[in-house]
Backbone:
């Protein structure tokens, strides 16, 4: 099973978070409710991209993201 540890609102942010987790030995994948080629922006949550990791890595991933200013509350905020 996988757990969502962060939600991104753009391709650049996705690449930074995935690279950061990989550099710390955590394998992550992305999931989205819509196609980025059709909806390359975020409106009311459409187009956001979830970062998922294995359950066993979720706590460590959240701790690392939080320690490096990728805060969980940032993930749930709507960005305009």
Residues:
């Amino acid at each position: 099973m996988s757990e969502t540890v962060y939600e991104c609102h753009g391709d650049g942010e996705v690449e930074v978070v995935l690279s950061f987790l990989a550099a710390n030995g955590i394998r992550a994948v992305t999931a989205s409710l819509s196609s980025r080629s059709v909806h390359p922006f975020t409106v009311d949550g459409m187009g956001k991209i979830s970062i998922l990791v294995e359950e066993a890595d979720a706590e460590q991933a959240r701790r690392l993201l939080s320690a490096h200013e990728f805060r969980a509350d940032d993930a749930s905020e709507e960005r305009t």
The chain has three helices and three strands. The radius of gyration is 12 Å. Residues 2-76 form a domain with the Alpha-Beta Plaits fold (CATH 3.30.70.1530).
